[in-house]
């Protein structure tokens, strides 16, 4: 069989026609553009995105990321990796449009796309959409009602939620396995693939199912994510304003405490100086009085007795002043001790406030990360939701009979599919730039792998050296 004679034949609505004639004829310009986009751009995005999401998954399975939000992100990374991984071979279907040389691989990849890629990618896309909705709910409850999130969003309930989402997504996408019927035949030495729609895909049940899927997978999740993203943005902005206000209040309070401490120290030293001056003044007056007493005793005993009687109450007054000042000093010391005890007692509430602020800051940063993830998901999924055949034909751009040859539909579908896959692949950079724990864990994993590589290289070098030493010389007989 000549590979250049392979023809891919499909039949839809009981009308058999050739969709791809793998010959050396010149194709239309838009077919070249679509083929280049699927072969090179889509394959590159899917390959790189698959590797990056595997890195995300390997980082999030570490023990540091044990919170419920990180568990959801772990499964989300795995679902995105599967979505991109199963779409890597899809671009090879369009290779004959570029090299005008057909192979059997294009036909078998087309069968793989019908029976494996379409159902599995739809399942994982559903899982990604519903997990993103669950993340938005968890973040909103954590920011608004911390006690409720701590009670209901535990690890066990999160795992149960993930299992239920996966089961529902699998059941919900089972009809994709029964949409098309594919058969391979050799006609005059030419391999032909006949693809026909099943009776189920032509029934009203499938039409109802397709609209139901659009509602539950596209419309409701995307609308909910738009609203929840706005609410989360409002909560984060409100928290930022409150955080800045608290920081300004703490700075002003610390300045006031410093000023009050300085004034208290100045007043204390001033009191001590006054007390020293009072005691020195009392000693001076005592010396003067003693000198006056001695002088007056020599003159007359009567006058000395009278003056002594007059000076006794003055001394008593001075003693009372000294005692009162000493009592004041002891009272001030007791006040200082009470202030120290009260400061020790207030250390625990201050530490609790600091831990609360740290927790709130961590929740705020995680919510900012989730807002970016939701925004990226919406950028990729909202345009793609309009690329479904029933939605696109409902908008009136192309009719159902002309959808296979509609240039606008094929170009729009190619752009939106690549945009959605780029969104799935770009979450790695959001985690890398917006999460410090992710960066530290990734750095630790890379360093550990580098150390293992160095150890293996040294072991191989030592093994080569030992083998070289064990070999006999070439000039001696073995």
UniProtKB/TrEMBL annotation:
PROSITE patterns: G_PROTEIN_RECEP_F1_2 (PS50262). Residues 52-431 form the G-protein coupled receptors family 1 profile domain. The keyword Cell division does not apply. Residues 316-356 are annotated as: Disordered. GO terms for molecular function: G protein-coupled receptor activity. This is G-protein coupled receptor, putative. It is found in: Membrane. The lineage of its organism: Eukaryota, Metazoa, Spiralia, Lophotrochozoa, Platyhelminthes. GO terms for cellular component: membrane. SUPFAM superfamilies: Family A G protein-coupled receptor-like (SSF81321). Keywords: Membrane, Transmembrane, Transmembrane helix. It comes from Schistosoma mansoni. Its main location: membrane. The chain crosses the membrane at residues 32-55, 161-179, 211-236, 366-391, 411-434. PANTHER family: FMRFAMIDE RECEPTOR, FMRFAMIDE RECEPTOR-RELATED. It comes from the Eukaryota.
């Amino acid at each position: 069989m000549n590979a250049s004679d392979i023809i891919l034949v499909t039949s839809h609505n009981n009308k058999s026609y050739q969709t791809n004639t793998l010959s050396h004829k010149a194709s239309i310009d838009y077919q070249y553009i679509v083929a280049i986009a699927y072969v090179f751009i889509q394959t590159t995005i899917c390959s790189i995105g698959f590797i990056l999401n595997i890195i995300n998954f390997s980082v999030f399975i570490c023990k540091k990321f044990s919170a419920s939000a990180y568990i959801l992100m772990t499964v989300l990374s795995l679902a995105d990796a599967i979505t991109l991984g199963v779409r890597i071979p899809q671009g090879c279907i369009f290779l004959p449009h570029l090299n005008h040389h057909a192979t059997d691989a294009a036909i078998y990849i087309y069968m793989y796309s019908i029976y494996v890629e379409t159902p599995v990618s739809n399942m994982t896309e559903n899982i990604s959409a519903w997990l993103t909705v669950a993340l938005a709910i968890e973040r909103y409850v954590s920011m608004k009602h911390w006690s409720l999130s701590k009670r209901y969003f535990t690890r066990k309930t999160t795992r149960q939620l993930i299992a239920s989402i996966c089961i529902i997504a699998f059941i919900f996408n089972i009809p994709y396995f029964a949409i098309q019927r594919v058969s391979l035949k050799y006609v005059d030495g030419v391999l032909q693939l006949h693809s026909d729609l099943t009776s189920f895909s032509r029934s009203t049940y499938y039409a109802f199912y397709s609209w139901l899927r659009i509602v539950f997978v596209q419309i409701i999740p995307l609308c909910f994510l738009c609203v929840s993203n706005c609410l989360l943005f409002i909560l984060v902005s409100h928290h930022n304003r409150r955080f800045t206000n608290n920081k300004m209040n703490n700075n002003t309070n610390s300045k006031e405490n410093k000023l009050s401490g300085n004034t208290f120290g100045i007043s204390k030293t001033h009191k001590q100086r006054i007390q020293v001056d009072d005691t020195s003044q009392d000693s001076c007056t005592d010396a003067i009085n003693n000198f006056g007493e001695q002088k007056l005793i020599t003159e007359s005993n009567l006058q000395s007795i009278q003056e002594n009687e007059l000076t006794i109450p003055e001394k008593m007054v001075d003693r009372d002043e000294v005692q009162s000042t000493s009592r004041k000093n002891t009272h001030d010391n007791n006040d200082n001790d009470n202030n120290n005890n009260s400061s020790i007692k207030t250390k625990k509430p201050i530490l609790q406030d600091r831990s609360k602020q740290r927790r709130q800051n961590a929740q705020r940063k995680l919510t900012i990360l989730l807002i970016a993830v939701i925004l990226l998901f919406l950028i990729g999924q909202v345009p793609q939701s309009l690329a479904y055949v029933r939605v696109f034909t409902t908008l009136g751009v192309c009719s159902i009979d002309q959808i296979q040859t509609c240039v606008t539909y094929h170009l729009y579908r190619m752009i939106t599919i690549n945009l959605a896959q780029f969104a799935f692949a770009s979450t790695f950079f959001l985690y890398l730039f917006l999460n410090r724990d992710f960066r530290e864990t990734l750095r630790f994993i890379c360093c550990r792998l580098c150390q293992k590589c160095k150890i293996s290289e040294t072991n191989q070098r030592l093994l080569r050296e030992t083998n070289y030493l064990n070999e006999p010389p070439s000039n001696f007989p073995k």
